[in-house]
Amino acid sequence: MYDQFASDYDRFVNWENRLAFEIPLLEKILAEVKSPAGEPLKILDAACGTGMHALALAKAGYQISGADFSREMINKAKLNAKSAQFELPFETAGFGALASVFGESRFDALLCLGNSLPHLIDDAELASALKDFFACLKPGGLLLIQNRNFDAVMTKKDRWMEAQPFQEGDEEWIFERFYDFNSDGTIGFYIVNLHRKGNAAWTSEVFSTLLKPQLKDDLTLKATRAGFNNVRTFGTLGGDPFEAQASDNLILVARK
Question: Which CATH class, in words, describes the domain spanning 2-150+214-255?
Answer without folding.
Answer: alpha beta
